[in-house]
Design a protein that fits this description.
Blueprint (H helix, E strand, L loop, with lengths): L8 H10 L3 E3 L11 E3 L1 H20 L12 E4 L8 H5 L2 H4 L1 E6 L6 E3 L3 E7 L8 E7 L5 H14 L7 E3 L8 H6 L15 E4 L3 E2 L11 E2 L5 H6 L1 H7 L6 E10 L14 E11 L4 H17 L8 E5 L11 E7 L9 E10 L1 H5 L15 E2 L1 H9 L4 H8 E2 L2 E8 H12 E3 L8 E3 L10 E5 L6 H12 L5 E3 L5 H11 L3 E5 L1 H6 L1 E6 L5 E5 L3 H9 L2
Parallel strand pairs: 3-12, 22-23, 22-24
Antiparallel strand pairs: 1-2, 4-5, 4-9, 6-7, 6-8, 10-11, 12-13, 13-19, 14-15, 15-16, 16-19, 17-18, 20-21, 24-25, 25-26
Helix pairs in contact: 2-13, 11-12
The structure holds glycyl-adenosine-5'-phosphate.
Length: 532
């Protein structure tokens, strides 16, 4: 298996463009930063992940911690909601990044992405202290040790040094004066951090003024909270239950980068799980473990995936506990970067949207009355005060929130395998067959002698059930190489023997092994491979 450190992002990005996975948005006009278009194969890959998430969360959720059937329903809420939503959710006031500008070259950075390290040389005092500036999303211990290795290389000549200090999230005045601009290398020319709201705004209707300003949602979650009561009143659900949603979100990211890792338009897969407050810790642990296991079902190697608990200084304003599922991306390796967050949001959101003091509020109570529990406690002779307190409450929320487009990136990174030893393809994509955009290539060995007719019939039969591709052009080697590059796990070739034996060759993308299989066994063969 190729290690993430050995994978080159530039080569992967080029392959994605060349083979129709991801294109820069509006490329013919010079592109637009932070936006991407998904080509035919990227769309298929994205849909495969999306459908699997929906199946595992809505149609067939995991069995609960006490062996109970977990109930989760789906939703598709509007991207633009009443702007009061974002005031009460805390996004208008709190969804900010601190920004600094370099006064020498005008480049703009997120202050919390610029890290300052002090390096000193105990065995060579005359060298004094040197400050090094690094760019990082967050430097956890693993990333810090990788950064330290890089500094060690730089200072190798001086043999011994000590790199000090854990990096700070917010830059102090003193830090700013020592920072070097990663763009122009000028020292100490950064402005004070300014807050910058990440929401993209728009003006529905004919009047473009502050009163008519609305926002493109920065997360799908709030649409779920706004519909909590609707779902409760119209569906036969009882707490605990979840509402799941997949859809586009928009953030005016200051530094969109690392291909589709951080973009300004992206897709999320989020589920809000509503539960009684005294069960919330148990459900938090449950979803923490279940979500990690789910990512493994996509064919991601365990050594490339970790769970990282947030420190108290990292928690979002709404969250009392959070754990990230992190992946070892080629650009973070040997460290990891975020893929999904599982947050304990408590009663924050339902309480925030329940306010009822004036016409800026919803004046709607978003709580839950458990009638069954009330009757049970009455029968057990529990006192009235306890019954009232226990049977009506604001549910707590556990939220597994992941990026669908980030999942596409993870599967691309995981599958990307340089194959210098192979003739024809320099790289292949080793997708797990279930997620491959094309499940099988169907080729007549030559475009004559009755072979195209058999291949076409096979293609027409299989395409009713599977995403398959018919190709009769170019040499068979070139056709195999193309399928390897786009990650097609199997190729069925109709050759001279097919006419007499009714069998075809099936070629395996990863092992290159070829075996013969009867035409009427192909359907069962594919069904078995794709069910894994
Ligand atoms: N409702 C909670 C929430 O939105 P988040 O950690 O901000 O939490 C959840 O986002 C997931 O959405 C992230 O783990 C990541 O996979 C994805 N995501 C967030 N911002 C993104 C961006 N700018 N580009 C691509 N994916 C992003």
């Amino acid at each position: 298996m190729t290690r993430p450190e050995e994978k080159n992002m530039d080569e992967l990005v080029a392959l994605c463009k060349r083979r129709g996975f991801v294109y820069p948005a509006s490329e013919i006009y010079g592109g637009i930063r932070g936006f991407w278009d998904y080509g035919p194969l990227g769309t298929a890959l994205k849909n495969n992940i999306r459908d699997w998430w929906w199946h595992c969360m809505v149609e067939c959720p995991p069995i609960g911690p006490d062996g109970e059937v977990v109930s989760i329903v789906g939703l598709d809420s509007a991207i633009i909601q009443n702007p009061k939503t974002w005031i009460h959710s805390g996004h208008v006031g709190g969804f900010n990044d601190p920004l600094v500008d370099c006064k020498a070259c005008n480049a703009r950075f997120r202050a919390d992405h610029l890290k300052l390290f002090k390096v000193n040389f105990p065995e060579n005092q005359s060298l004094g202290e040197i400050y090094v500036t690094a760019m990082a999303d967050h430097l956890d211990e693993k990333a810090w040790s990788s950064f330290e290795k890089k500094i060690r290389k730089v200072f190798e000549a001086n043999r011994s040094y000590v790199a000090e200090g854990s990096p700070s999230n917010q830059l102090s005045e003193n830090d700013r004066l020592k920072l070097r601009c990663p763009n122009c290398d000028t020292e100490g020319k950064f402005t004070e951090p300014k807050t910058f709201n990440l929401m993209l705004d728009t003006y529905p209707g004919p009047i473009r003024d502050e009163d008519n300003k609305a926002y493109l949602r920065p997360e799908t979650a709030q649409g779920i909270f706004l519909n909590f009561k609707n779902v409760l009143d119209t569906m036969r659900v009882k707490v605990p239950f979840g509402i799941a949603q997949i859809g586009k979100s928009f953030r005016n990211e200051v530094t969109p980068r690392n291909f589709i890792f951080r973009s300004r338009e992206f897709e999320q897969m989020e589920m809000e799980f509503f539960c009684p407050p005294d069960e919330s810790q148990q459900w938090y642990e449950f979803w923490r473990n279940e979500r990690y296991k789910w990512w493994l079902t996509l064919g991601i190697a365990e050594e490339n995936l970790i769970l990282r608990d947030h420190g108290s200084d990292e928690l979002a304003h709404y969250s009392s506990a959070c754990v990230d599922v992190e992946y070892k991306y080629p650009f973070t390796a040997p460290g990891y970067g975020e893929l999904e967050g599982v947050a304990h949001r408590g009663a924050y959101d339902l309480t925030a949207h329940s306010k009822g003091d004036n016409n800026k509020d919803s004046n709607t109570k978003l709580d839950y009355f458990d009638q069954e529990l009330q009757v049970k406690m009455q029968n057990e002779g529990v006192d009235k005060e306890t019954i009232r307190e226990k049977s009506r409450y604001v549910p707590h929320v556990i939220e597994p929130a992941s990026g669908l487009t980030r999942a596409v990136l993870v599967l691309l990174c995981e599958a990307f395998t340089p194959t210098p030893e192979r003739e024809g393809s320099k790289y292949i994509l080793k997708f797990k067959p279930k997620f491959a955009p094309i499940k099988a290539g169907i080729f007549p060995l030559v475009n004559k002698d009755g072979m195209p007719e058999i291949a076409t019939k096979l293609y027409m039969d299989l395409r009713r059930k599977y995403a398959v591709e018919y190709d009769a052009k170019q040499s068979i080697g070139k056709r195999y190489a193309r399928m390897d590059e786009v990650g097609t796990p199997f190729c069925f070739t109709i050759d001279g023997d097919t006419l007499t034996t009714g069998t075809v060759t099936v070629r395996d993308r990863d092992t290159l092994a070829q075996e013969r299989i009867a035409l009427d066994k192909i359907d069962a063969f594919l069904a078995a491979k794709l069910s894994q």
